[in-house]
Amino acid sequence: MSVIHTENIRKCFGEFVALDNLNIDIDAGDFFGLFGPNGAGKTTMLRILTGQTQPSSGEAFVLGDNVKNSVEVKKKIGIVPEYESPPSFLTPEEFLSFVCSVRGIDEKNVEYWLGFFDLYRKKKTLCKDLSKGMRQKLMLASAFIHEPEILFLDEPFINLDPIYQKKIREYLVDYVKNSGTIFLCSHILEIAEKLCSKIAIINNGKIIGNGSLDELRKRKDESLEDVFCRLIEDV
Amino acid sequence: MFNLIKLMLKEEYRFHTSYTSRYAFMFFPVFALILAFLAGVSSSKILEEISLKQIILSFHLSLLLYGMIAGSFAFLGREMAERRFGSVNFMIAMPDILPLSFRKAFFALYIREVAFYTGLTILPVTIGLLLSTFFSSIRITDVLLLFIAVFLSFLLGVSLSFFMSSIYRRSAKIFSAFTGGIIFLIFISAFFRIPVENIIPTVSFHFTKSLLPLLITIVLILIFSALGIMMAKEEIRTKTKYFDNAYPKIEKKLVFSKYSRLMAKELIDIKRSNTGVKMFFSFLMPLIFMTGFLWFVEENISVGFNSISYAIFIGFFSLVVYSWLNNIDSPDFFGFIPVTVPDVIKTRILIHIMFVSFFLVLFVPGMSVISSEIYMIPTALLVGFAVSVYMVMGAAYLTGLRPNTSLFNPKIVAKFWIISLLPQVPLIILSLMPGIISLFFILFICTLLLISCYWFYRGIEEKWGSESFTF
Prior knowledge:
The structure holds two protein chains of two kinds.
Chain A: E1 2-13, E2 16-22, E3 25-27, E4 31-35, H1 42-49, E5 57-62, E6 65-66, H2 70-76, E7 77-80, H3 92-103, H4 109-116, H5 132-144, E8 150-154, H6 162-177, E9 181-185, H7 189-195, E10 198-203, E11 206-211, H8 213-216, H9 224-234
Parallel strand pairs in A: 4-9, 4-10, 7-8, 8-9
Antiparallel strand pairs in A: 1-2, 1-3, 1-5, 5-6, 10-11
Chain B: H1 2-17, H2 22-41, H3 43-49, H4 52-71, H5 73-82, H6 102-132, H7 140-170, H8 172-191, H9 196-199, H10 201-208, H11 211-230, H12 247-253, H13 260-272, H14 275-300, H15 307-317, H16 319-325, H17 341-370, H18 377-399, H19 403-406, H20 410-431, H21 436-464
Helix pairs in contact in B: 1-6, 2-6, 4-7, 4-10, 4-14, 6-7, 7-8, 7-10, 7-11, 10-11, 12-13, 13-17, 14-15, 14-16, 15-17, 15-18, 15-20, 16-17, 17-18, 17-21, 18-20, 18-21, 20-21
């Protein structure tokens, strides 16, 4: 069953066409990776699917809801943005309490996620005084805390140390096993290759490759990086 | 240095035009020029009503205040350097990653503020007045003298703000003592009826054209700006503070509101970012300015300003509270949770009403007691409340979460002036006419204002419902 479905999504900023008639279908339980060079349109696509910005034309549906109804969509999903930006004057503990309150869920999970990301010892420090890595962990915790049906992750491994990159990888694999769906944008292709079951390559706002890694390979020994470079160079 | 200033000017220009079209932004100085030209052409008519001395004084006080407001962005400079403003970063943060001292960047910021705001308003107004000399009795030399003198008033305001911002960064206590000292001096001057030209040297220079006040002005500007820049802190990190989880307790106290979840977060922000103090002082400054202005006007031409007129002005100036509420932190992260832009706007309106009600209760009765108008307190409070709620609703409807930058969009400015002047002009005129009939009309207008608030409040949903949080 398709949990993310788009119909001719187009996004323009003035005369610049960031996304050009994109059609994507992602099924429940997919670990979907969207890859592309800088400025290809990955983040714009993620922002449209998460209701953060509206498309110039076309329709997008997440879990059956039109993304125009952004509040309903955001209730069901977790978002990790490209820039780690928790509120400056709240502590990590307060931020997670706030997220629980807005999402209408019990605060019992706050302690668990503070512990999971080793944020417990920083729980009384203002977010503005945290390191980038700590802030990234906090954004991940805020996206995971309500056990959403779909996770939208924009460069989730950036700023994380290798231990936490591994920990997050394992968490995401378990999450998909338990019927969660993931939409991932990343430049770290080695990690993505190990995780993604479906892949799309985007360039200049257009999808230039879509399917499983095996379907996109020309040779059996081709890595995701090789596929990526080949498709981009072919354009 | 020249390149840095040039880039900062480009950055400021692009920052403003990112919210409006380039042409709309450029219309702002053109609008100022046309307005000044028309004022110049009709100067003989205006001078029949108001004396030249009053006009000059108003110019200086306005420009001093304008300079202080423009310079107050220096307060934000350090904060912008310490954190990204959402996904946006500023040139002032470059000392973090380049071999450039923060003092040098701060100096460039100072020059940028002066150049940008002079180019945006003072210069167009001067050109407008110069053009009007062909159609009026105003002399070119008078306009040039006005330009030099008010420009110095503006510089004095900017320098004072930079100086104060550096003190604030060093010690909040010294800052409070210094501000308290300035307020005390203003009150003493008002109490002993010391002429304004004896307090502000630029006014004295303008009236007497003598060298001494000019010299004093230049020395003051140099001292304030040099000290401000020299005292700017180089180090990036401020002292890390630790806090217990205050969110659930505050949220529980606010259960009466539909927006308790967001209000609790905003109130914590206000407290920890010291915005409450900033709001108080930025509210106090125009009030002091206005009190002085009203006192001056009253001294020269007995217009009949009273507590109700005062409350109307307080209601208008209360907009600075809403402006501060939108300047505390980047709203980016709201985009990742199920809340909408109208939710945040409405939350901030409610907080605005809470704070302004407090300020009204603090200032209006005080003013009524001083003016021996205790019987006016209930009406003045009601009028102040109605005007402030109406103003914030109107501003929130027009500008959303970006009240400051939107004010450089001429379309929005024009709409803003229409919705603010339309009820306020008749209210001020009625407040000057004591009597039961005028009181009836005042209450009638206040009722209309509150009804309009409902319309604005509902309109916020429609206008901002699909807006993104991204800065």
